[in-house]
Amino acid sequence: MLVWRFGWKPTAVLWIVLGFTYVSAGLWQRLHILRVCGFALLVISFCKLFAVDVWDFTALMRVVSFIVLGAALILLGLFYNRFAETIKALLDDERGTKQ
User: Is the pTM value of this prediction over 0.85?
Assistant: First the structure.
């Protein structure tokens, strides 16, 4: 319904939110597949946003999109710093159970 009203441009923002949600849920539930799906969705949405959508934006929308990207990367860095030990422990647990 959102695509019919606004086109495909807002979907990248929704994919980014969904990707962060999947990564967070994967860390909370300790599910590897959710984290991988979340990171894949984030990569796809960032690539779509800057390879396709940014060229159709007005100057104001380009500025806003780059500010949102910067904020998302800062939040990702803060998230990683806050939970670095937990993430490392999860990755070590997964590697230990597979071997």
Answer: no
